[in-house]
Model the fold of this input.
Amino acid sequence: MSKPLIELSGITKSYGPVSALKGVDLTLYENEIIGLIGDNGAGKSTLIKILAGVERFDSGRMTYLGQDIEPKKYSVSTARRMGIETVFQDKSLGESQSIWRNFFMGRHLHNRLGFIRVAHEKKEAMRVLTDIIGLRGVGVSANAPVSVLSGGERQGLAIGRAMYFDARVVIMDEPTTALAVKEVEKVLGFARNLKVQGKSAIFVSHNLYHVYDVADRFLFFQHGKIRSELRKEEATPKILIDTLMKCS
Amino acid sequence: MQSFVDYLKFNAVQWTITFVFMVLLFSFMVFAPHTFLHSRIYIAYLSTIPFAGMIAIAMTLVVISGEIDLSFPSVMAASGFTFAKAYAFTSSPELGLVAALATGALAGVVNGVLVVGFKVPSIIATIGTQFFWRGLTVLLAGGLALNMAEIRETAFHHLMVGRWFDWLPAQAVWFALLTALFWLLLNRHVLGDHLRFCGDNSSAAQMMGIPVARTRISVFVIMGMVTGLSGAMVCMEMASWWPTQGEGYMLLVFAAVFVGGTSVFGGQGTIYGTLVGAIIIGMIEAGIISSGLSGLWTRMVYGIVIIVSVSAHAFLTKYSKK
Done:
């Protein structure tokens, strides 16, 4: 058995009187893709924000590679530095900014005075996007705004930059929502590629076929808790649908 | 080659504004050759454009970050006032400048705290602070202007707003340096990158670990300090301070920024565009008068230039998104 990367036990989170998470236990192992399934409002996005460092959990325990994580000291930048990278559905990119700026968004390679190494960044961004992600859009250059990319390519950019910064865990929030069919196939390809590269991932989606396609293990979320768990070997898309129905 | 094509494609707004500038300059040269084919008018422009131009350059950063600052005309008066007072007490224009910069920075912090801390939209917060700073200044000054004719004798006056080599207005040099510095800041510095993302999509910026609050406060402080600098320089140029200082700058500055192609929705804008915008707005009046039209034409021509430029930008923005 591979070793656990992230372990959550009894994680809770409330927004005022509303408790979004009521004690979540979850373990993500090395080189494993978890599919997170649940109805709207089940608490999936709260959990993702906590893992991403956007929100703090109220109580419970989170460890990364066996190290305890102090919620107060855990932010987006610490998460990214530790190798946990989140790709949010539509909140990962600045639409009218150039591709290279988006690639290095929030963590540019700069000198001591804060000046960015622009030429180097442009080269690196294009190298990763063409080699790793296989972006072949005609006439796409590092200076083009992200808005020229298709939905799938944008997800590719976000996943590509996670890989460039050597993330060990990539969390994908509804990466296939609102994409054309061909685009979906691309994004599922990116997710499978993460596994080939030895990374781990958490894949959140409404579409059970997409989750079934990429995940090794399926967790069902309901009312702020994980209600049931299935392994790939014991699941079919039909079983997933039935389980989801029971959990919603 | 690819990068050259991209250069044309992704800088359409800059090309437009350059074109508008060339058309204006050319028509002035045709209709007022006795003025526009001689250097004197250009030297006069070098002495008048920088004051509003510097503020417009700083405002570009504010607008790109998705904010707006309507308080700057009053902040200009307030920092001009502290400049004049500090100079009157210490006889040192250098200390006066420090006081003006500090006043501007303070006004910037107040705006920043209102917007970031109290979450008041900047368009509303800065209307409030505009009244506040103007009111406070007029109250402290007792409504009277301050004269400082003897400041013209100081070396610092010569350094900041004198005529170098007996012809070059010093403020044009400072304006050029400031413009270059802000170009670097916006295009090559991490802070400029943060500003772009804050204006483009602030929740994405937050989710991606960009220090949104800190960035917003910094941009207001930078804006305040540049306003303070401009206020102090206007006082030096005129050798006096008066209570309505800065009031005429509101439209000039915003016209320069938006004629220059900066998007009011944030995230997009260029220093080059604002520079050319400031020059266009600054040259129209003299151009019209020396072309033999009456001064009554000025406002209408401003209107036409602004409408044509912003329509062209809107059209290009829509077109280039496809």
